[in-house]
Amino acid sequence: MPTGRSFPRSSGRRAIPAISFAANCRRPPPLRPRPRAAEAVPARISERTSVSETLTWIVACRADAIDEEDVLRFDHGKATYAIYRTPSGYYATEGYCTHELALLAEGLVLDEVIECPLHQGRFHIPSGKALSPPVCVNLKTYPIRLENGNVLLGLPA
Fold it and tell me: Has residue 88 been placed in a domain?
């Protein structure tokens, strides 16, 4: 006997609730360039490096080879790194985006943020923190120091 329903009975499966993509994402931070400093800024040592950790320091590039708010690719062994110069200093992270393995050296640097060239995910350069979707895994960071006009990358021994 008809029940007056115009739709079929449930197959017993529960419907998957619709989740708004926008509800799970935050708005990316604004990319506002800072005024350029008139003088060179010191290199920053990563906060993740402990005093007891032994590092091997490798020359990555000349300090003057990187313009402010720029990034340079550096390959060493089987690894690729990204060397940055921001208004606050020099930094290094792993060289590939954690989302789709795009080369970060092809990305856009504004202030202290690198934007992935593939899907425009953003990372905070000094900390490696993922800032906006689609990236959600932080970048590994590495210590940098300046010596005799060279940028040295500190790698675990």
Answer: yes
Q: Write the CATH number for 146.
A: 2.102.10.10
**Is 95:68 a contact under the CB 8 Å cutoff?**
no
| CA distance linking residue 81 with residue 98, whole number of Å | 13
Q: Are 20 and 123 in contact (CB under 8 A)?
A: no
Number of separate domains in the chain: 1
Interval 78-129: pLDDT, tens: 999 999 999 999 999 999 999 988 999 999 999 999 999 999 999 999 999 9
Is 106 contained in some domain?
yes
Contacts of 30 (CB under 8 A, 6+ apart): none
Is residue 29 included in any domain, yes or no?
no
Q: What is the mean pLDDT of the chain?
A: 80
Q: Is the pTM of this model over 0.70?
A: no
Q: How far apart are CA 29 and CA 133, in angstroms?
A: 11
In a domain, 2, yes or no: no
